[in-house]
Predict the 3D structure of the following.
Amino acid sequence: MVAWTDFERATIKDIFSKIDYEVVGPAAISRCLIVYPWTQRYFAGFGNLYNAAAITSNPKVAAHGKVVMQGLEKAVKNMDNIKATFTELSTLHSEKLQVDPDNFMLLGDCLAIVVASQLGKDFSPEVHAAFQKFLAVVVSSLRRQYY
Amino acid sequence: MSLTEKDKAAVKALWAKISKSVDAIGAEALGRMLLVYPQTKTYFSHWPDLTPGSAPVVSHGKQIMGGVTEAMSKIDNLRGGLLELSELHAFKLRVDPSNFKILAQTIMVVVAAMFPNDFTPEAHVAFDKFLAAVALGLSERYR
């Protein structure tokens, strides 16, 4: 059971109400594929990932960015039980998609950077800390069903 | 994952935009690191105040970015050019090298928040590689 303070709960809900999923999701996934190019191994069917310009304009990448944001929203709506909420997703990533779980925090780091650039000064150190804790819980829950 | 000429050019271009704010970036990044990754506080138990914006944090953040600025001038030889700093971190400070990555991430979050239009994905990958190369340079003398 994760213990969230009132500030953390409010902050996470606030961040997700402020950010534009259509912008943040695609931007975070694109950054991950550009900054950590080995993550492209999981997106072989996405077509042209040849360079940064191709990745940022790739419609399949953008669509997947939105899928990721919808997954995160589930966690925001179930903050007291992210572990159980993500059981299926964890099994999916482990058994079907076969994603190296070390990659989850790479996407997490890119998300933090994209959210920081969206929120600017509003992404204060305290807000950043709450967001990082949220990401750590999400990543831990996604890792849980791996064996 | 060594720095290509393209990477170096991208890092220098980004640096030109952010260099006037390095002291502020350092203070922000260090303060954030202590708050966002509390395990890093273990290295600063001798400070009276570890909160963002406190005197020791601001002063030390400036010192750290001074080191990064020095690394910028040695960008063509980070492995051999940071030996003194490496010895300091290895023998005196005994910082576990995994923490360099943590500070690098917080530096980049601060740069993204302060310079969202300049910290493009291309600048991000080059800067990430640069900070990783600095970390390697700092680790050189560890064992």
Remarks:
- DSSP finds seven helices and no strands in chain B.
- Chain B has a mean pLDDT of 96.
- The radius of gyration of chain B is 15 Å.
- Chain B has one domain: 5-139.
